[in-house]
Specification:
The protein is an alpha/beta fold and about 375 residues long. It has 13 helices and 18 strands. The termini are far apart.
Length: about 375
């Protein structure tokens, strides 16, 4: 009998994961949106319509399943993971919630469950790669540059959202943390823009975002670490204008006697602009550099990923994110990874066996990381 997996969230990434996992397991996709579930149904995956913000219903929902995959928006992520832990279920999550996942570590250990968080592309596979090399060398510098972009640059934003758009806006307002000379530096998001050229892509603009997340705690022995987001040049200025004017604010303002949060209006206006059109193609670009001492010698490892929407129309960001998560799901389901408590992806990468499994899993699905040693 096949093991049972439930995927919470049927968006573009949730759909991709459900379809991939259905090759090996009995999968059910769950969402509140009938339209999203209808897309998953086309692939023959079972579906259920449930309000996942109702934790009581959520706990009852996950009871029959062997593993839970979390793909809900970030603002729902922490409470969703907490409810799954309380239900006593193992989970792999990509909701990228803003709260510290280690706040759930004691509860997860008490329940005897394995909870892998932030298991996407970055954070996610970048952490796995760093975790692997951290066991082999003394790393002094880690840099991750990553972005998902449409192939066609369409004015004014030259950007399209594959993830929950409200989570994208969070990237523009959440303070960015990085590590410099063993000290944590906090700057505003969108700061320190830099133009960087990428083969086959051209010049992109990088800026500080809060992508290190768990690495600040788990890799505190590495003196220099930074993660920056990539967009087409010029995008930052639009976003800074919106942010500084207050369009991303969660604080209600009064308009004609009504209390309105500016973020809600902005989201309503921006989301249609950021939605991918049918047949529209996008790509994911990522560059990871790690410098340090290995076997007594200075060495730099560089991992490069350039992945496009595939010939079947499967979106790159959904694949690069989703297949990282489903690779980890296989490790958990097959009993190869069974650490109890909260596990950020760098814990998986610490094992050479797990690292190679995940790279091969992605490679088999056309997501290829090319590595150079300098």
């Amino acid at each position: 009998m096949k093991k049972k997996v439930v995927v919470l969230g049927a968006g573009l990434v949730g759909k991709t994961m459900a379809i991939d996992l259905a090759k090996s397991f009995e999968v059910t996709s769950v969402d509140i949106s009938e339209a999203a579930l209808a897309e998953v149904k086309k692939s023959g995956v079972a579906t259920q319509r449930v309000d996942l913000s109702d934790t009581k219903s959520l706990k009852a929902l996950v009871a029959p399943f062997d593993l839970v995959i979390g793909a809900v928006p970030g603002f729902m992520g922490y409470e969703t993971v907490k409810a799954v832990i309380e239900a006593g279920k193992n989970m792999v999550d990509i909701s990228f919630f803003p709260e510290d996942p280690f706040g759930l570590d004691e509860l997860a250990k008490a329940k005897g469950v394995t909870i892998v968080t932030d298991c996407g592309v970055a954070p996610g596979m970048g952490n796995v790669i760093l975790g692997y090399h951290d066991k082999k060398m003394k790393i002094t510098h880690y840099e991750c540059l990553v972005g998902g972009l449409p192939v066609v640059r369409e004015w004014p934003y030259e950007y399209k959202a594959v993830f929950s758009p409200i989570d994208v806006i969070e990237e523009y307002i959440r303070p960015a943390r990085y590590v410099q000379n063993s000290s944590v530096v906090v700057k505003e998001a969108l700061s320190d823009p830099e133009l960087i050229s990428f083969p086959e892509v051209g010049t992109l603009e990088s800026w500080n975002s809060d992508g290190l997340r768990s690495l600040i705690k788990t890799m505190s022995h590495i003196p220099n670490m930074i993660e920056k987001t990539l967009r087409y040049p010029g995008c930052i200025e639009y976003l800074r204008v919106l942010r500084e004017t207050g369009f991303f604010s969660y604080d209600p303002i009064e308009v004609k006697g009504m209390k309105i949060r500016p973020i809600d209006v902005t989201a309503k206006l921006l989301f249609p602009k950021w939605k991918l059109k049918p047949g529209e193609k996008e790509f994911t670009v990522m560059r990871i550099r790690m410098t340090g001492i290995e076997n007594g010698k200075n060495v730099t490892y560089e991992y490069n990923l350039l992945d496009h929407t595939d010939s079947d129309g499967n979106l790159s960001m959904a694949r690069t994110t989703g297949y990282t998560c489903t690779a980890a799901a296989h490790l958990v389901m097959d009993g190869l990874y069974h650490h109890k408590g909260v596990s950020p992806p760098e814990y998986l990468g610490a094992s050479a066996e797990h690292f190679k499994f995940m790279l091969n899993y992605l490679n088999d699905r056309g997501v290829i990381y090319r590595v150079e040693t300098k």
